[in-house]
Amino acid sequence: MTAGARQTYLNYINGQWIPSSTNQTEPSINPANIHDIVGYVQQSGIEDLNAAVEAAGRAQPAWRKLSGPKRGEYLFRAADVLEQRLDEIAETVTREMGKTLPEAKGEVQRGVNILRYYAGEGMRSIGEVIPSTDSEALMFTTRVPLGVVGVITPWNFPVAIPIWKIAPAIVYGNTVVFKPAQETAVTAAKIMECFDEAGLPAGVVNLVMGKGSVIGNVMAEHPHIHAITFTGSNEVGKMIAQKAVARGAKYQLEMGGKNPVIVLEDADLDRAVEATISGGLRSTGQKCTATSRVFVQSAIYEPFKRRLLARIKELNIGNGLADGVWMGPCASQKQLETVLSYIEKGIEEGATLLCGGRRLDDGEFGNGFYVEPTVFENVSPDMTIAREEIFGPVLALIKVETFEEALALANDTPFGLSASIFTKNIGKMLAFIQDIEAGLVRINEESAGVELQAPFGGMKQSSSHSREQGRAALEFFTAIKTVFVKG
Ligand code: NDP
Fold first, then answer.
1. Whether pLDDT at 150 is above 50
2. Which residues' Cβ are closer than 6 Å to ligand 1?
3. Cβ-count burial of 26 within 10 angstroms (0-12 exposed, 13-18 middle, 19+ buried)?
4. What's the 238 CA to ligand 1 centre distance in angstroms?
């Protein structure tokens, strides 16, 4: 049976699709058209969470006993199922959170690739031999799973983020309790269907839908969840960290960004403009790596600004399912209101609005959460729009005289996720790589984007200083044992 029967999506606990104990559901609506209900999702209570944690705990001993390559086989199968359902699941992603269909397809394909990457991880080394001072001894490290891992994810990458957490968690021998963002819980159920169809043993992955303030909150303090991995806001992330520290659980947080791009006077202007638009406005600016602050050297400030504004005028905004649409709506009413309130603050605090700034609500737009792509200039470093994460299609243009000034301003933020620079000067590139305070450093490329085989994560308040993806995931999802053997 699939979770999707009658358009009501169920929790997946111990290999069974079951309704929540509260018997309450809520609609997941399409942000491009609020009359389109994507499905009804569960509003679970603590009882459901406990059942999932118990199932994950029961499944873990047998799962960890399987060899890594054997666990990897399940991931290869899940990748095949996801790939077969790519078009359908991508359409669900677009309907549920609003990104355009090509972007959604790219994301599902990424999910497939991540599953295959971690399937291969099941065969790679998990330790090293270290020379002992005792010539008759063998000293080496090995890695063991942590136990039950809690996975809490946001709505902005509803396929890629859950998979980049769940796939490494299980391939290294952990079992999982997964709480997706409620806005994208239908997509989450479809991911679980893929694991189910791949034949994963009951209890290895469990899905509990429900509000973060109810389920997520308790996950952070649940004594039988041994580690917790989270992506979302700083506010929630810090709260999870405090709860995890209090009970000695391992935790990993990926949070916000206020990502800068620096455009120097020798830059390829067209390229810099295209990358600023793509990095700042694709996915309606709802990426943690989205470009937010654009520092442009004064000699090219005016031509850069002219080209940027001209190109933004050409962007096609609309329902992400329609052909040729470049930018969809904000993912939810809450997100739309957040973005509009930041725009208002920008105006109030004295920044100059160059384009956009309004909710789009005429005709078909009135049924969705659309906002115009927005650009401000005369933004000073202490303004709210220069300091806080907006998570919407809003760019702040800031004129600078020198590279050094741009670098200092770019670093003047509590965040440190991604940063990019456009220049042909190798010395400036090297100085940027060395001195920018960001976990992802991008040269002549937009700030958004990361490859799945490379570590991903931020400095300062953007993360808990650990990294996800690539082999870096091994660090979080396993514990090291140092072994000393003497015959
Ligand atoms: P949240 O941090 O609230 O949500 C992320 C996840 O955490 C969701 O699954 C949510 O559940 C869950 N959650 C919410 N409250 C708690 C809690 N008390 N304990 C445990 N889990 C909880 O982000 P929002 O969706 O509200 O977005 C707010 C802002 O966060 C955005 O404007 C953006 O700035 C930032 N953000 C950053 C992201 C990133 O990729 N770094 C992604 C998303 C948001 P549920 O939604 O079901 O209630």
1. yes
2. 152-156, 179, 181-182, 211-213, 216-217, 220, 231-233, 236, 239-240, 254-256, 288, 338, 389, 391
3. middle
4. 11
